[in-house]
Structure formats: C-alpha cells, structure tokens
Design brief:
This protein is an all-alpha fold and about 250 residues long. It has ten helices and no strands. Helix 3 packs parallel to helix 9 and helix 5 runs antiparallel to helix 10. The longest helix is centred in the N-terminal third of the chain and has 25 residues.
Amino acid sequence: MQISIELLGVLFVVAIIAGFVDTLAGGGGLITVPSLILAGVPSIMALGTNKLQGCIGTATATLIMFRKGKIQWAALKAAMLYAFVGAVFGTLVLQFIPSAALNFIVPAVLLIIAGYFIFSSHISMSGSRPRMGEAAFHKAVIPTIGFYDGFFGPGTGSFFSLAGVALRGQSLLDATVSAKALNFSTNVASLIVFIFAAKIVWSIGLVMMAGQVIGAWLGAHSLFRIPTQFLRLLIVAVCLAMLVKYSVQMGWLA
C-alpha cells in the first residue's frame, strides 16, 4: 500500500483523538481501527497496528495514574496477569478463526453496557457493595475481557470499567483508573503475538504512537477534573457509537 505524508498526518491526528477518548472512557479502537481500514490497511494488519499504537497510549495513561498515586501495583498485579493471559489466548485464536462471529455478540454486549450506565442509579464516586469476590472476578471476568481484547478489541476499556462498577462495587472513577492498567496489560499481550505473526504496519504504527502519547497525556490529566456524570455520558456515547458502527457494517442500517 502507498503511505503518503498526508496520510500519516491524518492518522497522527486520529491517534491523538483516540488516545484522549480511550483514556477517559475506553473505545479508542472505535476511532483507530476503522481509520486504519479506510486508509487501506488490511483488517488483520489494522488490528495489529492498532495494538502497537494503542499500547503506548495505555502505557502513558497508566504511568501518569501511577505517579499520581491512583494506581496501586500490589492491588492490580494479579488482575493484570490474568488480563495478559486472556489477551494472549484471544490473539492466538484470532490468527485462525474469522472475527465475523463477534458481529452478533458485540452489539448485544454494547447495549448492555450502555443500558447499565443509563439506567443504573448507584454509579457514584463512593462505589457500592461488591457483587462478586475478588478471586472469582480475577479468574473469570478479567481473562474473558482480556480474551475479547486480544480477539477484537474496541470497547475493552469500557468493558473493564463496567465490570469494576457492576461486579466489584467500585466507583466509576476508580474503575476507569483500574481499566487503564488492565487495558495496558492486554495490549502488551496482544502486541507480542502480532509482532511474532508479522501483522503490523510499522511506519503507520510508530507515527500513531506519537499521537497516542499526546492524547493519553491530555486524557489522564483531564480524568480527575471532570464530573462523574460526564464520564458516564461519555461511556454511553462511545458504546452507542460502536453499536451504530456495527449496525452499518452488518447492513442493519441503510
């Protein structure tokens, strides 16, 4: 494929926007994956390149959260390991199985997430009572989301945030912060597999990495300055936008 300076410039700006949105609400892949495909990158290469650029975005956000004292390594290291393992398996499966099977599953999950954040009355800064034990959450829920991220990816940050709120009783802000570290772990796992599978367009990915650093930095410094209600609305908007994208792709919307 032809890679022009103009194309790289556009994808650089796309990465800035995606890094900002992904840090606040997840779903940055909604922006980057379609953009890469529209740029002429084959689908499997688009997913691999997306992991390359997305990895540095989540790394930037995670590092900033760690420096601010919002992420405790001791509390998250086990969860990050389970997320890593799940993503490795998901990415390995992706190399052999068409992703078309997700075309019906993902829209349903997105509707559940959006509906939960719209109608739930207990999402707050203070959190609530956990509905699942920590061990079960780490061993069942986190690897499942990690598998999804390795297999496809867009919306993973939103999935981690929802799981933390709905199952572990975290506040939305705390769940969003934890989601950055977990998403970083899944991105690294997937990236390793994609590198060995040679499914990355390095020239594009490296340029977009620079944009992701900027976007993630802006998002991480904005996260603690915005109302929880706005964060909830942003997650809903991202989920609904992804749902529209899938509906158009499936031909459900003319």
